[in-house]
Specification:
The relative contact order is 0.11. The chain is an alpha/beta fold.
Amino acid sequence: MILKSYEIKKLDLEKNNLVLFYGQNEGAKEEEISKLLEINNNITINTYDEKQILDNQEILYNEILSKSLFDDKKIIIINRATEKILNTIENLLNKNLSDISIIINSNILDKKSKLRSLFEKDKKLICVAFYPDTPEILSRFTNNFLRQNNITMSQSHINLIINKCNSDRGVLKNEMQKIKFFCLNKKKLSAENLLKLINLIENYSISELIDNCLAKNKKKTIGILNENNFSNEDCIIFTRTLLNKLKKILKLSKEFKENKDINKTISNAKPPIFWKDKELIKQQIIKWTPKEIIKLIYNVNEMEILVKKNSNNSVNIMSDFILNLVSLDINNEF
């Protein structure tokens, strides 16, 4: 059954056990999910990535079968869902989902999508599309936020922030919070400061994601993927940043292969490695041989081409690539 985004107040998780939220407006989806969680007291919330479920179906079935004596309700959220989850959902239709609701969070699904069709046609299921926010909606939110926090900003700066947010209110909220905290210290919000602020978290998230990915820190990598709303532009930035990082690690990996001394390799690195990055880079050098890095560079180039050709699905392509990478055994074929 189809619900419009403004009709979500009709959604009752006590009755609606399977819900599909789809569309590229991650901020709007997160906002509505938060509202649903707020009105459902004494609940257990477990969040998974689709790949985790597909790699181990028992995770989901164990969640359904197990029930805490202290919880009245359990909500399972499956992020970055695609058509691959369809068979799993169909298998759940005949199971008793009493006291359990599953929210499927997917990106863009076209009209031919079997997953979307299943949720739209079955009256027991709920399907909600989240389309990009209009500039008017984002401008209204921005002006209200600035007024409430007594912050003065020119219209050109407001337009700059809105354009940066890729029509996603979640990204906009993050940017406005950064501006709020910056202004609490009574610092002048110049054009230069504004540009630094609206790029700070984005660059940090991508860099942190790449570092943990190459160190094969699976838990941390999945955490970063779940906590950030990456855009199509971010996917290109990710591939370019990853390639530059790999070239640097390749040089260090070759040196380590020759001298067999990881500390000497780090100490002799040019340019010098900042002290807080040394342990993470050690892990990266140890995890990857020069041959494997060269092979990975080729794969990243292929992934970049795929991302550019499939911009509507670029975030899923990037996420699958990352999750496959951190799950990869060193001696296996990539």
